[in-house]
Design goal:
Number of helices: 30
Radius of gyration: 26 Å
Strand content: under 5%
Order of helices and strands: HHHHHHHHHHHHHHHHHHHHHHHHHHHHHH
Number of strands: 0
Distance between the termini: 79 Å
Largest sheet: none
Helix content: over 70%
Length: 632
């Protein structure tokens, strides 16, 4: 018989290992933010090495649950990860001096590093991106066997390993660099806000503001997730944070489990678009396009507002259609009490934004926002960032960065192959050819590619792939560079709710206790209008504020919101009353007219909308007059 403490020891060891590695990752990242980032070939391998240590350390120290074989494999993988990543850190000067020349030892280290990374990615995210990376590796080696435009001259294993393991063009490329600098700091900032109680404050404020409305809990999920999106930047993290509060509230208020999970999934997905702290893909976009992050965040403001205005309308129409009441008084928090209790914690977000707009780097702003969170937490006893809370924040941040870092490193394999083979130019040419020069068809193809490649991937990884392959084609067809990349970003973001593998829907399903596929399908219905929003700014870059006077920007935002609301009404089949099919087509036509940047089509859309609303109002009055007679 085993001793009582025998099963506890491995679990304790695993927690100690996780905490130790997480704290090391946090300290390393914060040190770099304050004193200056290390050279790329120290910063990036160290970051990835610590992430891999988190992934494989679980298998090594988890105890009986893993099994002897699992612990043995985990130990080998952990050792391999430490050695292959550590080699770069120790010998980075010698590697740089050889300009990519591969030694026999580095050849085997490179093969091991690629294999270890693929296994870590499989454990952290799943198979989709691993399968994709393997297909690209096979393409690099066997490409000379392919006919026509798809083929290339073929590359040896040595050349492929050199491209992917040495230098900054593969595993340790730009995507991992963004994860190792900007994203890790943002994630730690969000984790610190969560541990201090700021997320609960945001949700209480959102619920207090919207709870008295029809379908209040769903609307509080929309508002709360948009606010939380400012500090979390990932759909799954947003669901797991706000969903634990909003989904049970929605269930108590009359929503079924599938609808409650779907609302939260769609609301949390949009948080990646919400400035000032957007998803990891926004930082990648800044690096790829060489457009300052502040410009990208500013351009995302109106698209984010359109997204949430449309979703808010969908939720409102759904509440009217299903006769869902306002939130019960017992479930309604006081907005004033929430601000008094935790409003001081939100000042760190103000510090972050102020520093960003002051011209400081994202890392510098993140560091001082973290420091502000720590200092502000001591203004109230219940929000103190004690050593335990600091450790929890480090662990939460490390766990959140694992899927991002592994996805970015794995995407580096794909990008390395694309760069080496010239596939990006070929793919862009193919999109232009298939579209026949039609911008609309090219945009549809781009969105489909984003949704397909994004299945089961974090938004950052999906964005990298499509931005590399397709965004140049949109630019070639005349789309503004920023608009093209935001279109790709937005489309990749929506893959979080698109079946069959919808990460946000899976996270919501765990809380709602419903089928993930059912939640994903319902989320697509609730978010259907949002799929059209990126077409607005692709056709009308004024919505992004690109070299456009303020009146034109505001007009573009207004027409986009009205068009989105019209589409939401058509999908839900309700405005002032239930819509006929002819009226639904009318609202779709309104959205189609308002999508263009032409004032004539805008005017036509607004006039048609006015006529439809008058028709609705007249029909509603007629029904109200007939109602008493029908009861006699």
């Amino acid at each position: 018989m085993a001793e009582p403490g025998a099963s506890v020891a491995p679990a304790t060891t695993a927690r100690v290992w996780t905490a130790g590695v997480a704290i090391a990752l946090a300290v390393f990242s914060i040190y770099g933010a304050f004193y200056g980032v290390f050279p790329d070939m120290i910063q990036r391998p160290t970051h990835l090495g610590l992430v891999l240590a988190l992934v494989f350390g679980t298998a090594v120290f988890a105890g009986p649950a893993t099994g002897g074989r699992g612990r043995a494999i985990g130990t080998v993988l952990l050792a391999a990860a430490i050695v292959t990543m550590g080699y770069h850190v120790v010998f980075h000067d010698e590697i740089a001096a050889r300009f990519g020349e591969l030694t026999p030892l580095e050849f085997w280290f490179g093969i091991v590093a690629i294999a270890v990374l693929l296994e870590a990615t499989r454990r952290a995210i799943g198979l989709p991106i691993v399968v994709l990376a393997v297909l690209f590796l096979l393409y690099a080696y066997f490409g000379d066997l392919l006919p026509g435009i798809a083929g290339h001259r073929g590359y040896s294993v040595e050349r492929i390993v050199s491209q992917l393991y040495l230098g900054g063009g593969g595993i340790f490329g730009t995507p991992l660099g963004v994860s190792a600098t900007f994203v890790i700091l943002i994630v730690l900032f969000g984790a610190a806000l969560e541990q201090s109680g700021a997320s609960r404050t945001l949700m209480d404020i959102a619920t207090g503001l919207t709870g008295r409305m029809r379908g209040g809990p769903a609307k509080s999920a929309v508002v709360g997730s948009s606010l939380m999106g400012m500090i979390s930047g990932t759909a799954v993290a947003n669901v797991l944070t706000t969903g634990t509060i909003s989904i049970p509230l929605m269930r108590r208020n009359g929503y079924d489990a599938r609808s409650a999970g779907a609302v939260e999934a769609v609301a949390s997905t949009g948080g990646q678009l919400m400035p000032p702290v957007m998803g990891a893909a926004a930082f990648l976009m800044a690096d790829i396009t060489e457009i300052h992050y502040i410009v990208i965040a500013g351009a995302a403001v109106l698209p984010a507002l359109v997204y949430y205005a449309v979703l808010f309308a969908v939720v409102h129409f759904e509440a009217l259609k299903c006769d869902i009441p306002a939130l019960a008084r017992d479930d309604l928090p006081s907005t004033r009490a929430a601000v008094l209790r935790g409003g001081h914690l939100l000042l760190s977000i103000v510090v972050f934004v102020w520093l960003l707009f002051g011209g400081y780097s994202v890392m510098f702003a993140s560091f001082w926002a973290l420091a502000a969170t720590l200092a502000l937490s001591f203004l109230k006893r219940e929000s103190w960032m004690t050593p335990v809370r600091l450790a929890r924040a480090a662990i939460a941040g490390a766990e959140a960065i694992v899927p991002v870092a592994t996805a970015c490193a794995c995407a580096g394999i794909i990008i390395g192959v694309i760069t080496m083979t010239g596939l990006g130019l070929k793919f862009s040419s193919l999109v232009v050819t298939l579209s026949g020069g039609s911008l609309f068809i090219a945009l549809v193809l781009t969105m489909v590619a984003s949704l397909v490649l994004g299945m089961g991937l974090p938004t950052a990884a999906a964005y990298i792939l499509v931005a590399t392959l397709v965004a140049p084609a949109l630019v070639e067809l005349g789309v503004n560079l920023l608009a093209a990349h935001l279109f790709v970003f937005y489309s990749a973001m929506l893959s979080s709710i698109t079946p069959p593998v919808a990460l946000a829907a899976y996270a919501a399903a765990a809380i709602a206790g419903a089928n993930p596929l059912g939640i994903a399908l319902q989320a697509c219905r609730f978010g259907a209008a949002a799929f059209v929003v990126p077409f607005f700014f692709a056709y009308n870059p004024a919505l992004l504020g690109v070299d456009t006077p303020l009146p034109s920007v505001l007009l573009a935002g207004l027409t986009a919101i009205v068009g989105g609301l019209a589409l939401a009404a058509a999908i839900q089949g309700w405005v002032l009353r239930r819509l006929t099919w002819l009226e639904r087509f009318g609202y779709v036509a309104v959205a189609g007219l308002l999508i263009s940047a032409n004032w004539k089509t805008d005017l036509g859309g607004l006039l048609l909308l006015g006529g439809l609303l008058l028709l609705q109002r007249g029909a509603r009055r007629g029904q109200s007059k007939l109602a008493p007679a029908s009861r006699t």
